[in-house]
Specification:
Layout: H1 8-26, E1 42-47, H2 53-64, E2 68-73, H3 85-93, E3 98-101, H4 106-115, E4 120-122, H5 130-143, H6 148-152, E5 162-166, H7 171-183, E6 186-190, H8 199-206, E7 216-219, H9 222-226, E8 231-234, H10 246-252, H11 260-266, E9 273-276, H12 287-290, H13 297-317
Parallel strand pairs: 1-2, 1-3, 3-4, 5-6, 5-8, 6-7, 8-9
Helix pairs in contact: 1-5, 1-13, 2-13, 3-4, 5-7, 5-13, 7-8
The structure holds phosphoric acid mono(formamide)ester (CP) and norvaline.
Phosphoric acid mono(formamide)ester binds near residues 124, 132 and 279.
């Protein structure tokens, strides 16, 4: 449902498995643990919202593993019009091996999980986007590789990194910040006044790993957030489902566009990198940054495939046992 459901070691293993599968498959070798792992199995994908990356990466991952992805768009099935979530979850799960669901309210995916007899993976709800977070930490790991000491302990070596989030407090931020707590990276968040992280979510983030040294800082100043940042991240200011608020939000977020000038004014680290889960709009980041040498956004988008492979392996093939995958 969320990165909050994972221990730090499990999250690290999912990211490491994603990395090793990426290397193997891209060099022309399908690891034994993936080959035919979903042969004869179907993964149902009820999506109540649009998607490019999540759909393409999930369908691609199922195909790599020899299974059949079954995309079920909002217009295609009875769900929401003619049939309840409960009945839909019971029925679909009786004929498939996994449900990967994209929903509006988080309760919807939680309800599906409650009534499903097979694993349900959250493909984005209004609160969380865990597959994105696995891809994001893979991207961060590739951009800031672990030193030798960290590699020996199987850690990703992210302790001491600073991630600055500039923009809206949303689903992508929440799972990223929860993951950062678990992996020891600090997160500093700049939102306009009135758009701060809600207090219930602040408690979830801060409680994600009680012994973590990682900090969660919050401000209304983008420049303050990016001070000493290694990575600057943003996302759309208008998430799916918030279309009616678009005009007001775009006005209220004036001054929050990520630019090289803003990063320099704020004092981001010399080698800072830019991330965005996509889709992207001009207002939240200008072209100089988005298409510039600091941007790892398309690598991040590609990493969605390896995150999906890693998650399907752990939750469907290995039935929730998250262990280091064999080659
Ligand atoms: N980042 C992401 O989830 O993109 P889609 O909405 O295109 O799936
Ligand atoms: N926060 C965005 C992410 C899209 C991938 C949304 O929920 O629409």
């Amino acid at each position: 449902m969320s990165i909050a459901d994972l221990t730090p070691a499990e999250l690290t293993t999912l990211v490491r498995n994603a990395a090793s599968h990426k290397t193997a498959v891209k060099s022309g070798y399908t690891p034994k643990s993936l080959k035919g792992a979903l042969l004869g199995k179907t993964v149902a994908m009820p999506f109540n919202k649009r998607s490019t990356r999540t759909r393409v990466s999930t369908e691609g991952a199922v195909a790599i593993m020899g299974g059949h992805p079954m995309f079920l768009g909002a217009q295609d099935i009875q769900l929401g019009v003619n049939e309840s979530l409960r009945d839909t979850a019971v029925m679909i799960s009786s004929v498939v091996s996994c449900i990967v669901a994209r929903v509006h309210g988080h309760d919807d995916v939680a309800t599906m999980a409650k009534f499903s007899s097979v694993p349900v993976i959250n493909a984005l709800s209004d609160l969380y986007h865990p597959l994105q977070t696995i891809a994001d930490f893979l991207t961060i790991h590739e951009s800031f590789p672990a030193d030798e000491a960290a590699s020996k302990t199987d850690s990703l070596g992210l302790e001491g990194l600073k991630i600055a989030w500039v923009g809206d407090a949303n689903n992508v931020l929440y799972d990223l910040a929860i993951g950062a707590q678990k992996l020891g990276a600090s997160v500093s968040v700049a939102t306009p006044k009135g758009y701060e992280i809600p207090s219930f979510m602040r408690s979830i983030i801060q409680g994600a790993h009680p012994t973590s040294n990682a900090q969660l800082m919050e401000t209304n100043s983008p420049e303050e957030a990016v001070k000493n940042a290694d990575i600057i991240v943003t996302d759309t200011w208008v998430s799916m489902g918030q279309e009616a608020e678009a005009k007001k939000k775009i006005n209220d977020f004036e001054g929050f566009q990520v630019t090289n000038e803003m990063a320099t004014r704020g004092g981001a680290k010399e080698g800072w990198r830019f991330m965005h889960c996509l889709p992207r709009h001009q207002e939240e980041v200008n072209d100089d940054v988005f298409y510039g040498p600091r941007s790892v956004v398309f690598q991040e988008a590609e990493n969605r495939l390896w995150a999906a492979v890693s998650a399907l392996e752990a939750f469907v093939v290995n039935k929730g046992k998250i262990t280091t995958s064999s080659a």
